[in-house]
């Protein structure tokens, strides 16, 4: 079995390149692919390498210019708000999240919940057309739970949030607010000049 390709496999003259395509046996094509894969993984990858030459000596030195690592962001506070219908599920999930924070070495803050749930009542007529006195009330109770964590780095925060979001139980909503620490801008560091 043979496969026709538009690329040439052997060094050919210009006339041969322009004239026709090359036919490669499948076994040779598989060997070429295997060789390319081994070469690709065997050779080190050089990102942004530069070549410098000195006038006194003919030695050529190559240096790999690695980009400077970006400093990790710092967060002073992470506040998580949980909303759900079942308070036992919220309490269990709070225990799970604080245990995960302990394993990651995150400083825990206050974990609390309000005493009363938020009630939303809807009053509807029992009958579609008549009997205005006969009504039905439906009530939805939403329970809240709050967790605070302090002194986090950006990578730890991303890992922690991804982990607890993946294990979020059904019927629980999660809202996150972060407080990032930043340096004071240069124009605000110096006091204004006297006028």
Oligomer: single chain
Radius of gyration: 33 Å
The succession of helices and strands, N to C, reads EHEHEEEHEEEHEH
Largest sheet, in brief, is: 5 strands, antiparallel
Low-confidence stretches: 1-22, 40-62
Walk me through the structure.
The model is unreliable at 1-22 and 40-62 (pLDDT under 50). A hairpin with a 6-residue loop joins strand 3 (49-53) and strand 4 (60-64). The protein contains five helices and nine strands, in the order E-H-E-H-E-E-E-H-E-E-E-H-E-H. The protein is of the alpha+beta class. Helix 3 runs antiparallel to helix 4 (154-166). Helix content is 30%, strand content 37%. The longest helix has 18 residues, at 87-104. The chain has helices at 14-19, 26-42, 87-104, 154-166, 186-189; strands spanning 2-5, 22-25, 49-53, 60-64, 74-84, 107-112, 118-125, 135-153, 172-181.
Layout: helices, strands, pairs:
Elements: E1 2-5, H1 14-19, E2 22-25, H2 26-42, E3 49-53, E4 60-64, E5 74-84, H3 87-104, E6 107-112, E7 118-125, E8 135-153, H4 154-166, E9 172-181, H5 186-189
Q: Keywords for this structure?
A:
195 residues, disordered N terminus, two-stranded antiparallel ribbon, five-stranded antiparallel beta sheet, alpha+beta
